[in-house]
């Protein structure tokens, strides 16, 4: 995706799992790895996004897994870039961008 979206800076947030480290990894200039602090899934933006999706599942009941999938898919389709940014935007991410010079 680095080549496809070559004009954009891509920030990939990773936990500190051993499988996210490599001594031989070469990153394109438009990809920045942002490692979250150890043992802190609550600072992972995807967790906040799923929390928002699950908030709409309260008191819902589904007869089949397909019904649940359809419900979640419809909820995800309602999200646009602005909504996702408002849910997942964290000061520490913005600060990291500023420090890295990509702001």
Description:
This protein is mainly alpha-helical and 103 residues long. The chain has one domain. The chain has four helices and two strands; from the N terminus they run E-E-H-H-H-H. Strands 1-2 form a two-stranded parallel ribbon. The longest helix is centred in the C-terminal third of the chain and has 13 residues, at 65-77.
Strand order of the largest sheet: 1-2
Q: Which oligomeric form is depicted?
A: single chain
Helix run count? 4
Strand percent estimate: 5-15%
How many domains comprise the coordinates? 1
Overall spatial form = elongated
Protein topology:
Layout: E1 10-14, E2 31-35, H1 45-55, H2 65-77, H3 81-88, H4 91-100
Parallel strand pairs: 1-2
What labels would you give this structure?
41% helix; single chain; 10% strand; mainly alpha; 4 helices; 103 residues
């Amino acid at each position: 995706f680095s080549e496809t979206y070559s004009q954009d800076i891509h920030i990939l947030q990773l936990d500190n799992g051993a499988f996210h480290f490599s001594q031989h990894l070469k990153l394109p200039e438009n990809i920045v790895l942002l490692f979250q602090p150890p043992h802190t899934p609550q600072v992972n933006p995807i967790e906040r996004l799923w929390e928002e999706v699950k908030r709409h599942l309260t008191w819902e009941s589904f007869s089949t897994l397909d019904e649940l999938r359809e419900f979640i898919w419809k909820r995800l389709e309602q999200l646009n870039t602005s909504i996702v940014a408002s849910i997942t935007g964290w000061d520490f991410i913005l600060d990291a961008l500023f420090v890295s010079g990509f702001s």
